[in-house]
Here is the input.
Amino acid sequence: MPRLSAERRHRVRFTLNGSAVEAEAEPRMLLTDFLRHELGMTGTHVGCEHGVCGACTIEINGVPARACLTLAVQADGATIRTVEALAPEPGRLSILQEAFRRHHALQCGFCTAGILMSLDNYLRQRPNPTEENLRVFLGGHLCRCTGYVPILAAAMDAAKRLREVPANA
Amino acid sequence: MKPPNFDYIRAESVAEAHAALAEYGGEARVIAGGQTLVPMLSMRLARPKVLIDIMHLAELKDIAAKGDALRIGAGVRQAEALASRDVAEKAPLLAAALPWVGHAQTRNRGTLCGSVAHADPSAEIPLVLLALGGSVALSSHRKRRSVSAADFFTGMMSTARADDEMIEAIVLPAKRPDTSTAFQEFGRRHGDFAIVACAAVVSPDGITFAVGGVADKPERRDFPALDGSPLDDAIDAFAWELDAREDLHATAPYRRELVRRMGRATIEEARRCLA
Ligand SMILES: Cc1cc2nc3c(=O)[nH]c(=O)nc-3n(C[C@@H](O)[C@H](O)[C@H](O)COP(=O)(O)OP(=O)(O)OC[C@H]3O[C@@H](n4cnc5c(N)ncnc54)[C@H](O)[C@@H]3O)c2cc1C
Ligand code: FES
Ligand code: FES
Here is the structure.
């Protein structure tokens, strides 16, 4: 049975935004720190580090989850997407990101990466959300400066536009 | 806020998990969804020597409807149970309570058995297990045993599980056609732990009423098919018997008052669906 000793660093591999990545982690290393410090992917933010704020939300095996509540070693073999995967190409934003910009749905941007990752997934699963659905779903995120009204407006607008484009471009 | 050091074992069979639990006992912790354990590690509220990851064990991933029981394995995540047709049909009380367990993002990883093992007095899944008269399937290298929910929860975050035992599954009796159930919760925000949560199972001849968030563990009472003020009196007597907690979220009298009002409303909601 694979047993990883506390004292050593161990190889962790997974698929990140479509590419195979690997680096080393002690068993106690959180996935947030692994992404940011070992892989240099600093788009994923760290707020509370105990699961409450949602800033660190990423997609693990196709579903949104807290990176700060996951050990890097638990992610070995997983398929992971982070906010860096959203923009289709450098200099171009995704439909959801564009909507955030249009509606001023961010100020400091601290919460934004997590909210985008949650919504990106949700709108693929449920292209026709009601505002009520989105309110409940966004309950898993804290924003301390923008306020939720523009965030909801951006999400509703993005949902509408995503329904209009054929292949979720 | 970073976890302390521990060794990490990725169990490849239940027997391996048992062996590691036998070797380390109280120094080991099973890690399932990690939605409670990882914050406890980060806040240094837990300092295990060894973590035993059970989420790679295919044999624990089943939701199995057999006869009049529903068995939910330790590897089943809350989001999977919420999407399960068997859960919706055979345990509608659980299906009604699951959306209240944290947020979609935590339900995508958290397990039902992890919540039962942790036994937070405000947690919804232990409350549902108690209200339905379910049981916990425990196993170790020594033996297997089944413990009723009523005997399993022994107090604030304490259970009848021995240090070398793991929970393999929870087992819920399937809903009988002559019964109806309802769940209600009051918290600060949707997704927060309950200040008070109520579950009711009603049939033409009686009422089972259970509350969470009030005492140091979920509590349950069975009443005859009362109505009107005798029902209010029975709920009131139950509310007084509860050793209600006082904390920064609510006072004990406030919790008792919620039990009276939500209790009545929950029982009536269940009855409306009985017709
Ligand atoms: C922001 C947030 C909000 C939350 N809100 C709620 C809420 O409203 N209601 C609620 O009930 N919960 C809530 N939770 C906790 C819930 O998400 C957890 O999923 C649940 O309490 C534990 O399940 P887990 O699989 O994550 O267990 P883990 O965190 O992996 O483990 C929890 C404990 O149980 C033990 N354990 C786990 N599985 C087993 C097993 N099979 N055998 C023996 N021991 C085991 C572990 O050793 C540990 O001590 C919340 C969590 C967060 C982060
Ligand atoms: S940093 Fe992960 S939820 Fe706050
Ligand atoms: S934009 Fe600042 S916290 Fe949300």
Remarks:
- The two ends of chain B are 53 Å apart (CA to CA).
